[in-house]
TrEMBL record:
InterPro entries: DUF247_pln. This is UPF0481 protein At3g47200-like. Keywords: Membrane, Transmembrane, Transmembrane helix. The chain crosses the membrane at residues 401-426. Residues 1-24 are annotated as: Disordered. It comes from Cucurbita moschata (Winter crookneck squash).
Length: 431
């Protein structure tokens, strides 16, 4: 999060004299200025600079969250479910009534509106507050039902319809489908029963999304425990590399990354980095390119594109996910390239279907320059000329002649070792 956002909390300025209209006016003025100063836009539309044909990757498939896609015809069927979830949420938390939650949201309306890139003049105060309250309670009830099975209903379509829960997870990771995290936290903390032991909201969020994020579980958990502006920011933090950026030699001419097939031909070994902590922990060392495994879904493009869109709006971002997509796009320029990474278990899916993986990665074909990107240093090292003897040996060891030479050498070594062993035995016997 930007350092400026750390100030975005409510500040109470006590009045020095009760009943004074002038002092109340001053108080209101100061609070208004503080809110304007501390608030910043955190939820954006997908930027136009992402030049892709299918902009539907930024549109939710099942449920709208927040005002951007509210009222879209293809999402109307989920609105009824939201009301059912709100009703259940109130029943499960009898200590707080609907009026209290409405007042809580209305009080935060101005701050909530300022989090969005658009003004939403089409939504009056009541409509905007209703959207915020309904979507907030839907998310909270969904997180609670996922972690606490006793809260689920037998006829709950979210948990009985194949694929729906996965689709909802993906929708909650879209750039344009977010609500401010502070609202989720405020409502959740105000409905908790202090006499019971409750999981934190961050813990509930981690449990819900952990299967969508590759990497070390402890690292993912730690990232979800950090405060964020919205759910997508939490998810994005889990994708960042834990390795330091490899510096480039500015004097060296920038070259592009060869495909996986060309790297294999050149004798570069491509290996599954099983012990990596993050999806972006790519490393090249001693002639071995290590790439963490990527689980390929039908919606892999949707998730990665939205993470990139989020990065573009962050000032000072090194755009690591964008660099990762570009890096992999250079590697995967043909079906054969995909097969090389699939056979090394770097690419996989739930059904272990090679052809399905190829189809789901067809979008990963654009080849933007890697110069200046997060992985530019690795690309430069891959293009450096290896030691001449090492290069010759890498090429030679793939030929039948090399295999024959190695076999002969092994036999010779064994024979010589056996000869000297027998010779030493005979020497001791006839001494």
């Amino acid at each position: 999060m930007d350092s400026s956002r750390a100030l975005s909390h409510s500040i109470d300025v006590p009045a020095t004299s009760q009943g004074s209209s002038e002092e109340e006016s001053l108080l209101s003025s100061i609070e208004g200025k503080l809110e304007a100063f501390c608030s910043s836009i955190t939820i954006f539309r997908a930027p136009n600079e992402i030049s892709i044909e299918d902009r539907n990757v930024f549109v939710p498939a099942k449920v709208s969250i927040g005002p951007f896609h509210h009222g879209a015809p293809h999402l109307e069927s989920m609105e009824n479910l939201k009301w059912c979830y709100l009703s259940a949420f109130l029943k499960n938390n009898p200590s707080v009534d609907l009026q209290y939650l409405v007042e809580l949201v209305v009080k935060s309306e101005s701050r909530l509106r300022k989090c969005y890139e658009e003004e939403f003049y089409g939504f009056d105060s009541d409509k905007f507050s209703q959207i915020m309250l309904l979507d907030c309670c839907f998310i909270l009830e969904l997180l609670l039902r996922f972690s606490k099975k006793r809260l689920r209903r037998r006829n709950d379509s979210v948990f009985t319809t194949p694929g729906l829960l996965f689709d909802l997870r993906c929708d909650l990771m879209l750039l344009e489908n977010q609500i401010p995290y502070f609202l989720l936290k405020d409502v959740y903390e105000n409905v908790q029963d202090p006499t019971e032991e409750n999981m934190s909201l961050n813990d509930l969020t981690f449990r819900f999304f952990k299967t969508m994020v590759a990497g070390d579980r402890q690292l993912v958990y730690d990232n979800f425990m950090v405060e964020a502006d919205h759910l997508l920011e939490m998810v994005h933090s889990c994708f960042l590399s834990t390795y330091p950026r490899v510096e480039t030699n500015d004097k060296s001419k920038s070259k592009e990354l060869p495909t996986a097939s060309k790297l294999k031909t050149a004798g570069i070994k491509i290996k599954n980095a099983r012990s990596s902590k993050s999806l972006l922990d790519i490393k090249f060392q001693n002639g071995v390119l290590e790439i963490p495994p990527l689980k390929v879904y039908q919606k892999t493009e949707v998730i990665l594109r939205n993470l990139v869109a989020y990065e573009i709006h962050q000032s000072g971002s090194d755009r690591q996910v964008k660099s990762y997509i570009n890096f992999m796009s250079h590697l995967l320029q043909s079906d054969q390239d995909v097969k090389i990474l699939y056979r090394r278990k770097i690419l996989n899916d739930q059904e272990d279907d090679e052809e399905q993986i190829i189809r789901n990665l067809k979008w990963m074909s654009e080849r933007e320059s890697l110069s200046g990107t997060y992985f530019a240093g690795i690309v430069q090292k891959l293009n450096e000329k290896p030691d001449r003897c090492v290069a010759r040996w890498r090429k030679l060891r793939r030929t039948p002649v090399a295999i024959g030479i190695v076999a002969v050498l092994v036999v010779v070594v064994i024979f010589v070792a056996a000869f000297f062993s027998a010779f030493s035995v005979l020497q001791r016997r006839y001494k």
